[in-house]
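Memo to structure team: turn this sequence into C-alpha cells by end of day. - J.P.
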Amino acid sequence: MAKVAKAPGKTRTLNFFLINRSFYLVDLPGYGYAKVGRQLREEWGKALGQYIATEERLAGVVALVDIRHGLTVRDRDLQDLLVGASCDREVVLTKADKVGRGQRAKMQQAVQRELGLHVPPMAVSVRTGEGRREVLTGIDDMVSRWRERQRSE
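Reply from structure team:
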C-alpha cells in the first residue's frame, strides 16, 4: 500500500508496486508542492532525471499536475526532460472536483497547448472517481506500446 498524507512530500524514495504480476508502477517523489528544503527537492530532481535517462525498462511516465494551479516551472522542466529522453508520457490534471467544468476545460486546453500535446490531458478526481478508468487505460496503453517496441528490437 502506498502511504499518503494531506501535505505533499510524503514520498521520499522510489517505491515499486507490482501490478497484476505484469508490470511495476513506480511512485516517484513529487517535488512540485512538497514542503521540503531546496536541497532535498534538488536531490529528488537529480534522482528523477537519472532514473528517466537510464532506466531501460521505463514504459512511460504519468505526470500529475494540480488542475487548480496549472503547470509550474518544475512541471515544465519534467516535461522537457521527458521529451528530451523520448519518454512516453501521460499528463493528468488532478483534483478535477475542485474546479468548475468551465475552468477545467480551460486548463485542459491551456496545458495541451503549452506542452504541445496531441490530446488534452485527462482530468481526474480521486474523490469522485472521475477519470480513473481513463488513467488506467492510458497506463495499459503505455505498457503495451513499450512491450511492442521490445518485441520489434
